[in-house]
Amino acid sequence: MSTPLETRHLRGLGRPVSAIGAGCWTIGGPATNQGVPIGWDRADSGRALAGLLHAHELGVTLYDTADVYGLGHSERLLGRLLSRVPRHEVVISSKVGYFASAAHPYAAEQMGRQLERALANLGTDYLDLYFFHSTDFGEGDQYLPGAVKQMRAFVEHGLVRAVGMRAPHTFALEWATGPSHDRRAHEAARFLRLYEEIRPDVLIVRYNLLSPLYGPDETDVFDFADSQGVGVIIKQALGQGVLLGTHHPDRIRAFGHGDHRRQDPMFTPKALREVYDGLASVRERYGATVPDLARVALRYALARDPEAPVLVGFRDAEQINTTITSLGEPLTADEITGLHQSLAPLRDAFAARMAKRHAP
Ligand SMILES: NC(=O)c1ccc[n+]([C@@H]2O[C@H](COP(=O)([O-])OP(=O)(O)OC[C@H]3O[C@@H](n4cnc5c(N)ncnc54)[C@H](OP(=O)(O)O)[C@@H]3O)[C@@H](O)[C@H]2O)c1
């Protein structure tokens, strides 16, 4: 690559990381957890490792995985990268909270076992970042205090350097004081309650061209995190491939066993048609190839917060190469405003679809 990959100073971690991080969910391959598909089909370990090595060559220093990505397979692949590169050069993030077992995933001893397994899989003696992956802390949040205490013990023992938690896909601080029967109010209040208990260093949030925009009187996750001195990592900037135009509504792909997209409302024929048609103005203005659309999607996400790195999923060296080398110049403020305006109908339709999904 002619220009080195940009870096960002991730608040909460206190060190620079590449502006684009390698999201290692896809490379974990197909998987099910308690009968629910949670992985990605068509993954190949050799090609995935080549992708990781190429990401490192391109300057990627942030790698995000989880115990449930391929039920350990993603961590083990990342371990093969770590066996070849100096540990201190890379930032490794993993997650706990979903892995089905006899105990609750957040039972303290279960968390201990999962961290031990993650470190063994990765071949390292510490994680730079460890996320509370799920927000299910059992009936009445009975496992929450113990899980927080256990996480703090990991940090005190030098096994974990910083703690992360996920933020809701839609959030404004002001919503939390709304009526308790309101779903938005309930979710915002719950996030704040968990946030106060966990006191994370870093939040992870989905943010892409379809994400809602907020009014001048609303404090979104990015502004909230900024006010708290907490870092933000952006995930799913490519809309899991949908924003790259690779899921054409006339050529619907059948997803294999163990691929979460079998059950994802984003991948129904109707939703794919909606997104494809809604992105017509983007294709007209920026071009319709994967690099054209990757540039818009990534530059849009990178523009939201100058300190937030963006994770991209990939399955091989070709995908990560295309994605990273397509970055090009940042979008101008006018271009961002233009995208806000031209994508308003699509954003609204997407928000309505997601609201319906959560309706009782
Ligand atoms: N709760 C959490 O904390 C959480 C949740 C979700 C994700 N994450 C993290 O965020 C990362 C990114 O999210 P994501 O992987 O779900 O979605 P993403 O980055 O938006 O999309 C990744 C998918 O897009 C397709 N793609 C990527 N580059 C491509 C290219 N150059 N050409 C064609 N297709 C391409 C691939 O799927 P196909 O080849 O199958 O089309 C790939 O698996 C994850 O890997 C994970 O590390 C965290």
TrEMBL record:
Top-level taxon of origin:
Bacteria
Domain NADP-dependent oxidoreductase stretches: 20-340
Output the Pfam families linked to this UniProt entry: Aldo_ket_red (PF00248)
Q: What is this protein called?
A: Aldo/keto reductase
Species for this entry: Actinoallomurus vinaceus
